[in-house]
Amino acid sequence: MIDNPRSPRVRAAAKLAKKNQRAETGLFLLEGPQAVAEALQYRPELIVEIFATPAALDRHAGIGRAAAAAGCRVEKVTDAVLETIADTVTPQGVVAVCRQFPLALDEMLARRPRLVAVLEEVRDPGNAGTIIRVADAAGADAVILSGTSVDVFNPKVVRATTGSLFHVPVVVGVPLEPTLQRLREAGNRILAADISGDDLLDVRSDGHLDGPTAWLFGNEARGLTPEQLELADRSVIVPIYGKAESLNLATAAAVCLYESAFAQRR
User: Fold this and answer.
1) Is 105-265 a domain of CATH 3.40.1280.10?
2) Where are the domains of the chain?
3) Do the Cβ atoms of 131 and 117 come closer than 8 Å?
4) What is the C-alpha to C-alpha distance for residues 127 and 169, in angstroms, rounded to an integer?
5) What is the pLDDT of residues 153-202, one digit of tens each?
6) Class of domain 8-99
7) How far is the C-alpha of 258 from the C-alpha of 161, rounded, in Å?
């Protein structure tokens, strides 16, 4: 058991909370029993090591069995060590170090995607992670984060995906304009979610949700610029029927992605 919070392995893992360390090592932190269980089930080859307290292993016995089946060693640690590694204030006793695994744009396009979420300058980790989770739930084929968006391997983003990061392909660090052009050339209609757009119900009635679609979502505070909106085939607004001033970005993205998912499966 590791009981020294200042041991080299513990300090190396804890440093992965910083973007420069993630970029340098190509690794990231995966925190929580649910997320680690998803990684063990779907992408065990990405796991470098797992740290867990004895109490957490007792509560989540399936993690120990899955790790053994996948050939992943679980290092038992004290609560103090786990707290040093974890990014949360109240950790749940299980943290893994994993290899980053972004998908290349060319490889994603070769799979002929029919539903894609494109995030441009989305900076809030919770929003980015939730949109990845929603995209997974809606059966999207990929999520693309432009180079100006938050790092997808940021611990807060990873936690917000609740394991969906291991289900839906993610492309990162690409420039917006050529990426949208490549998606259009691959047969996708580009729809931009924006308050200046056409009512979502009208877009649905026009049949513009039925075919392959890439939804473009912009910055939480500023939305999309006029220049970015020009890159889309059509702008779309999610109508608000009550007195709410606006919708959270991730909530609006959920509506848009599910509307496309419904239309494509109709």
Assistant:
1) yes
2) 8-99, 105-265
3) yes
4) 17
5) 999 999 999 999 999 999 999 999 999 999 999 999 999 999 999 999 99
6) alpha beta
7) 17
